[in-house]
Design a protein that fits this description.
Strand content: 5-15%
Number of strands: 2
Radius of gyration: 15 Å
Strand order of the largest sheet: 1-2
Helix content: 25-40%
Distance between the termini: 13 Å
Order of helices and strands: EHEHH
Structural class: alpha+beta
Length: 96
């Protein structure tokens, strides 16, 4: 488990435009979601819906707001986020 006030996860679904790729070529944006609102992602919201919820979006280029965000149900961070929501004392231990 990482130590510190923040937890990070990166999930990327990409369609490469060519066979020659460098790290970062396929990342179009990053979404910043506080742990207490991570469950929003399970609803597969659109980017527009997330922005209406004051979620942070960092874009390489402007992304279509109707695009749906997808998080695999078997992603391990889903379990971590749920545990952190259900047990705030864990967050206090991490923040030390």
């Amino acid at each position: 488990m990482p130590a510190g006030p923040h937890l990070y996860i990166g999930l990327f679904l990409a369609r490469p435009e060519s066979n020659l790729m460098s790290p970062g070529d396929d990342v179009e944006g990053l979404i910043g979601v506080p742990i207490e609102r991570f469950s929003l992602l399970a609803e597969q919201p659109t980017l527009e819906t997330l922005l209406q919820q004051d979620i942070t979006l960092i874009e390489r280029t402007t992304l279509p707001r109707q695009k749906q965000v997808w998080l695999p149900s078997d992603e391990s961070f889903v379990m971590i986020a749920r545990l952190l929501q259900e047990h705030p004392e864990i967050q206090q231990l991490i923040s030390r």
